[in-house]
Amino acid sequence: MTRWIVGIRLAMTALLLAVSVLIGGGVMAQTNEIEQPPYDVIGTVGAVELRQYGPRLAAEADMNPGPGVERAQYAAFMALADFIFAKNRQGPEVAMTAPVAIEQAAEPIAMTAPVAMEPGEDGQVMRFFMPAAYTMETLPRPGDDRVRIVTVPTQTLAVLRFSGEADDAEVTKRKAELLAGLRGSAWRAVGDPGLFGYDPPMTPPEQRRNEVFVEVMPAQPASAAEQASADE
């Protein structure tokens, strides 16, 4: 996973550099302007933030486990990046949230953050969230069958933010910290945690925004028998 995260960040840097050159702005300035899915903070549990996200469109690709996992994960990222930059998609030209043109044949879709890496039905999936201006009807169709357009439903997420390097050991530690922070609270985890990545590698480690997250729902009160068993 460590080599994969490095590869993803290098790819993000290449994408941000391309956008920056075309619009004449700095890489960090462009990063700060990237659209993010809106959410409402509905509470906290210690350092854990509870967020309510509405439905949002995402382009996703599988990160299949097995031999050559780093290569497969990098390929998923680049398939999604090619969709964003109009290299593997079909459909009409679309209005942009930023005036960037990579190819004359079709306009790119504005970049958003974060990149999500989370459990899927058959392993891990990577998601790029689409700008809010698009609907399922107006978003172009992918030209690569590895890329799917999905509607992520309304979710309540427990999120733990941290800076520094998001390597294997740190991500594992933070996921455990997130789940531990929810124990005994009014919320329980649904499924396994995932990772949100926001920053390219030129961002100083202490300024990087990394987040581990897990979907949650209100915890059910323990029955008398369960409480008695827990007290033994």
Description:
This protein has a single domain (2-219), classed as Multidrug-efflux Transporter 1 Regulator Bmrr, Chain A. Helix content is 29%, strand content 31%. It has helices spanning 2-23, 27-33, 69-84, 168-182, 224-231, and strands spanning 39-45, 48-53, 56-63, 89-90, 115-120, 123-129, 141-142, 148-152, 155-162, 187-197, 210-218. The longest helix has 22 residues, at 2-23. The radius of gyration is 19 Å and the shape is globular. The N and C termini lie far apart (40 Å). The model is unreliable at 16-31, 92-106 and 223-228 (pLDDT under 50).
- The helix/strand series, from N terminus to C terminus, equals HHEEEHEEEEEEHEEH
Write down the CATH topology.
Multidrug-efflux Transporter 1 Regulator Bmrr, Chain A
What is the percent of helical residues? 25-40%
Unreliable residue stretches = 16-31, 92-106, 223-228
| CATH architect. name | Alpha-Beta Barrel
Number of helical segments with 4 or more residues: 5
The strands making up the biggest β-sheet line up spatially as 1-2-9-11-10-5-6-3-8
Q: Alpha-carbon distance between the termini? A: 40 Å
For CATH, the homologous superfamily is named as Regulatory factor, effector binding domain
Counting helices, strands and paired strands, the structural category is alpha+beta
Q: How many domains comprise the coordinates?
A: 1
The overall average pLDDT, rounded, is 75
Name the overall outline: globular
